[in-house]
Amino acid sequence: MVQFARLEYLPTFIFRWSEIIGIENLSEEEKQLLFPLFRIRPWANSKSLANSFDRINQAMSGNPFACDVDDWYDKERSNTGAAQELRNILQDPSYSQWYEFVRQFDNAIPCLRLDTEIENIEDALRQEWLEARGFGIVLNEYNLRYLRNALACLPNIHHNNFFVAVDMGWSRDPLQQAQQATSICVDLLRAKPDVTIFLSSSSFPVSFDNFGFGEAVNCAEYALYDEVRRQLQAVNNEYFVKYADWGTTRPPSDGGGGWIPRIDLPRGRNIRLYRRRIADDETKDEVCSAIAAEVTASDEWVTPPPSWGHYQIETTAAGGQQGIYHARKNSATRINMYLHQKLSEIILLKRQKNILRNLN
């Protein structure tokens, strides 16, 4: 059983290749500490939606994960068997088919769907298996108008085997959302004072044209989290939320286009972007290799504990065939390195707590 109150971090991911590869290449110790929230959509051209859960299970080495329907996924656009299966599951306005589908995957923690009648949510909460396994409640741009449903249910949940994720979405200036986020968290904590809340947001850029080579992008998610914590303490010094984000990704958005070679280097609360265009006398692979060589030679390349992502940059700098030569591999590398840093911090913190416990 997942002990939600002991979790230190909750990253949200759209179920895509880059996210899966980045997670799959974490160490086994890191995967045991990682508890991600996946927005479920069909995997590639799968005939069965179960393949999505099987692929996550493989990447996570059987460790638990939370799951919710991907509200950004266009369910009418695809005619694959998995897409049709998802449409059929979601035709039931009570979402009982969704819960029963997730139930068959022992390490999957379902999230309640709030966009339904309050009676349907209460029926779900009465299911013994859901209470035993645990569940999540996600509030985001798609269902925030149903906050009242969550507030109505919370006082009647007579256990703590669940979590709430307050996801403020994407913004390059998430501090503008601090007051609203604080208000939501206060309402939740007043409804159930011992509820475990994660505050999530995303600020990874949509466009990179205005960033110079090697320029740092601040992870503004931390500023939002710090400000909301400060505001909550001003309301009640016992109010507390935990940190969450999108793991250096962002919710789906319009736009995009041809990829200009780029390598991202996460460093604490910022990400260095190394990007340049291909000259007429260069190939894409040559530019990627040259960029990687500059990254590894820069002052920002502090030799870290080994991670798959760092090896990918070193491989690219050496011109290796399995290097970073397309956008998805760059994203997978960045996600892996960022998660490695976050989880290394958690591992270190746990070890320090164990030392202090033994001394006492």
Distance between the termini: 28 Å
Largest sheet: 8 strands, parallel, barrel
Helix/sheet category: alpha/beta
Order of helices and strands: EHHEHEHHEHHEHEHEEHEEEHHH
Regarding quaternary structure, what we see is single chain
Radius of gyration: 21 Å
Would you count the extended β strands for me?
Answer: 11
Shape: globular
Mean residue pLDDT: 94
Strand content: 15-25%
Query: What helical percentage do the residues reach?
Result: 40-55%
| Tally of DSSP helical segments | 13
Can you walk through the features of this model?
The protein is an alpha/beta fold and 360 residues long. 41% of the residues lie in helices and 16% in strands. The strands form 2 sheets. Strands 1-2-3-4-5-6-7-9 form an 8-stranded parallel β-barrel, surrounded by 4 helices. Strand 2 (37-40), helix 3 (50-59) and strand 3 (65-69) form a beta-alpha-beta unit. Helix 12 (308-317) packs across helix 13. The longest helix has 33 residues, at 327-359. The mean pLDDT is 94.
In short:
By secondary structure, the protein is α/β, with parallel strands linked by helices.
Label this structure with key terms.
globular, about 350 residues, eight-stranded parallel beta barrel, 13 helices, 11 strands, alpha/beta, three-stranded antiparallel β-sheet
What secondary-structure arrangement, pairings included, does this model have?
Layout (H helix, E strand, L loop, with lengths): L9 E5 L2 H8 L3 H6 L3 E4 L9 H10 L5 E5 L11 H10 L5 H8 L4 E5 L5 H8 L2 H6 L1 E5 L7 H7 L8 E9 L7 H14 L5 E6 L12 E4 L2 H15 L6 E4 L16 E6 L2 E6 L8 H14 L10 H10 L9 H33 L1
Parallel strand pairs: 1-2, 1-9, 2-3, 3-4, 4-5, 5-6, 6-7, 7-9
Antiparallel strand pairs: 8-11, 10-11
Helix pairs in contact: 1-3, 1-13, 8-9, 9-10, 11-12, 12-13
